[in-house]
Design brief:
The chain is an alpha/beta fold. The protein has helices spanning about 1-20, 105-120, 140, 155-175, 195-215, 235-245, 270-290; strands at about 30-35, 60, 75-80, 85-90, 100, 125-130, 175-185, 220-225, 250-255, 300-305, 310-315, 325, 345, 355-360, 365-370, 380-385, 405, 425-430.
Length: about 425
């Protein structure tokens, strides 16, 4: 406990001294919408742990109203934010207003934001949460104007309904209200979707336009995307969830990967504690980007140079220096060529693994890879994108796609009291020609 308190104090000092941006607009009630698929609604997140609200955070209560829900129905109220964040699902697949499977990231996120606000400003910052994700559904059922298929295809409409309801309740209560962010916990079903980034950006654009029309806010709604790390090799949706933040840095940000969190026995979904840790990371990124208005970015590559056997990778590091994590275990234990790569993967132009002899941290923001041979023009560098085929999950209980490069962020979750440095995103970077 003493170590956790010291880490929290260190993080607060770092936050006070390093935040670059001016504080953004906040409201009396700050809306957060959770969208995505099964991990967004807490699949296998049992038993539920967040059953007490220590601050002033709220969630939407729909009573027993059936679909379609009228946002003006007086049975809709706001109640203290605890889990489950909404009504429990009775079927699979399911949809709002009965779409929650267990502990979601929302309570931990809201409570993390409150704790950071109190540490920084001396007062609570109230967030109002609604979760509209649908188990197992790809972007085709999350987008605006989605065709209904059974219970699927309601999520976008549900977010609009709930936002209208909160806006009405805020007006009645004399409170200002705006939507600060969308937590996007998604991507597994779209593992092979080459248009995922385009579709994800369109989803953000539609949300931003329609939510502003309801709340009257001028401030853009930030989409905070958690990268999935479970299915497929070189998954387009995994890559897109990182790259979209580089391509649209003011609107969308990747919060980082999920491979470092505790997973359920299926190696696909998180445990209740895993969802709480994810929520704390969402809360940290929300506070940086939405509340402080800083240009927070994940641990990600910014420059790659390839000369013969040597590959030099420079990173954006949220809190320097770079560190090899000692808790997750070395990745690729059964792939001899990459066993010394610490999560890095090099393939020749034909897609065959290239021997990595060593991976070394140089300075505070650079990694030097030494290969057994020159990978050649047209080769590719990747990180945490290829899973071990013989493994359902990693030795520490997570996805078989993982790496051990992280930063030195002293952030400790206010809910779980677990240290949460920033682990490197999964990425793909062609070697000669130019990157993405």
């Amino acid at each position: 406990m003493l170590i956790s308190l010291l880490r929290s104090l260190t993080y607060t000092v770092a936050l006070l001294s390093s935040s670059a941006g001016a504080r953004s607009t906040t409201w009396d009630w700050n809306g957060i919408i959770g969208d995505g698929q099964s991990l967004s609604v807490g699949a296998h997140g049992l038993p539920i742990e967040s059953t007490r609200q220590p601050y002033g955070n709220l969630k939407v209560n729909t009573d027993s109203l059936p679909w379609p829900v009228d946002p003006n129905d007086p049975k809709i109220t706001l109640v203290p934010l605890v889990e489950p964040v909404g009504r429990l699902a009775k079927t699979y697949p399911s949809s709002w207003p009965e779409n929650i499977d267990g502990e979601t990231p929302h309570s931990a996120a809201g409570n993390e934001i409150s704790a950071l606000s109190i540490a920084r400003f001396g007062h609570d910052l109230v967030t109002v949460h609604d979760a509209v994700g649908e188990d197992g559904q790809g972007m085709i059922y999350l987008k605006k104007g989605a065709t209904h298929h059974g219970l699927s295809g309601r999520s976008y409409e549900a977010a609009i309904i709930q936002t209208k309801a909160i806006a009405r309740l805020a007006e009645d209560a004399g409170k200002s209200f705006g939507v600060g962010a969308i937590f996007m916990t998604h991507g597994e079903t779209d593992t092979g979707n080459a248009k995922y980034e385009e579709e994800l950006y369109q989803l953000w654009s539609d949300y931003d336009t329609d939510l502003k029309a309801i709340t009257g806010q001028k401030q853009d709604v930030v989409m905070i995307v958690s990268q999935h790390n479970r299915l497929g090799e070189y998954s387009p949706s995994t890559i897109a969830q990182w790259a979209i933040g580089d391509h649209h840095p003011h609107e969308i940000v990747c919060s980082g990967p999920k491979y470092q969190y505790p997973y359920f026995t299926d190696g696909l979904h998180l445990t209740a504690d895993g969802y709480r840790q994810l929520g704390e990371k969402y809360g940290q990124v929300y506070f940086e980007r939405v509340v402080l208005g800083s240009n927070w970015r994940p641990l990600e590559p910014v420059k790659v140079e390839h000369t013969g056997k040597i590959i030099t990778i420079q990173f954006h590091v949220p809190i320097q220096p770079l560190v090899w994590d000692s808790t997750l275990g070395d990745p690729h234990p059964s792939t001899a060529e990459w066993a010394k790569g610490k999560g890095f993967e090099v393939s020749d132009p034909q897609g065959k693994p290239v021997m990595i002899d060593s991976a070394e941290i140089k300075g505070s923001d650079t990694v030097l890879l030494t290969c057994g041979t020159d990978p050649g023009v047209g080769a590719r560098l990747s990180y945490a994108l290829v899973g071990e085929k013989a493994m359902q999950k990693a030795p520490f209980g997570a996805s078989p796609h993982w790496g051990i490069l992280r930063d030195s962020d002293p952030f400790v979750g206010a809910v779980t009291h677990v240290a949460q440095p920033n682990f490197c995103v999964a990425f793909l970077w062609p070697l000669n020609p130019a990157p993405h």
